[in-house]
Amino acid sequence: MQKKFITITTGNCDSDFYLVCHAACDEQGNFQWFLKDDPNSEHEVYLENRVYESFSTDSNWIKENAENKWLGCHCLLKDDKYTEMICYLSSNILTILRNNTFAMISTFNSQGNLGDNYILEKY
């Protein structure tokens, strides 16, 4: 599971950002993304038309639809069926960074130029 966090920054915590999550990089299968209020609850709200390997969204959508919820994905790859709880969602950059571990964080300026890339290294 790869989670990538992309932000277009204006220098404060209320900046807009984009979030990209991958359920199974480079693999084909069936996917259904969903939201939960609690990662351990049984209740899931399926995200309509979110049936692809990756999920992309922005801080405005999170604020309106998924503030303080958990993003998950049901995955069926060949004969392997599993569920991944991907990430805690917040429209605040600092909150989302504190509550998740990302494989990569990329920053861009308001013109869309790449600022910095931060890649999680495993020891």
Q: Could you characterize what this model shows?
A:
The chain has 123 residues and is mainly beta. The chain has one domain (2-119): Immunoglobulin-like. Helix content is 11%, strand content 45%. The strands form 2 sheets. The chain has a 5-stranded mixed β-sheet. A 4-stranded antiparallel β-sheet has the order 4-3-6-7, with no helix packed on it. The protein is globular, with a radius of gyration of 15 Å.
Annotate the secondary structure layout.
Layout: E1 2-8, E2 17-22, E3 30-36, E4 45-46, E5 54-58, H1 59-66, E6 70-77, E7 80-88, H2 93-98, E8 104-108, E9 114-119
Parallel strand pairs: 1-8
Antiparallel strand pairs: 1-2, 2-5, 3-4, 3-6, 6-7, 8-9
Quick summary of this structure?
It is built from 2 helices and 9 strands. The protein has helices at residues 59-66, 93-98, and strands at residues 2-8, 17-22, 30-36, 45-46, 54-58, 70-77, 80-88, 104-108, 114-119.
What structural class should be given to the helix and strand makeup? mainly beta
Summed up, the domain count is 1
Sum up the overall morphology in one term.
globular
CATH architecture, please? Sandwich
